[in-house]
Amino acid sequence: MAKMAVFVGESGDTDYEGLLGGLHKSVVLTGVSCSASNALHANRSYPLTDVISLESSNVVHAPADSDVRDALKKLELIKE
């Protein structure tokens, strides 16, 4: 699991809380979202940071239009 990467959108249009925890690495693609799920998660009564740590060394943020290899290098999943 420590060598696996999961890609998620930044607004929770996937099973965000379930995918970010654990041993695997996560790449949060900023700018990737669904407007319907944005409305759903806007009604959440708790901040997402209560569920997962966005400051974890296993989580990196990458613009959706960027080269994902840069994110995988930060996670030490591929070498330069």
TrEMBL record:
InterPro entries attached to this UniProt entry: SPS (IPR044161)
Keyword tags: Glycosyltransferase, Transferase
Name under which the protein is recorded: Sucrose-phosphate synthase 1-like
Domain of life: Eukaryota
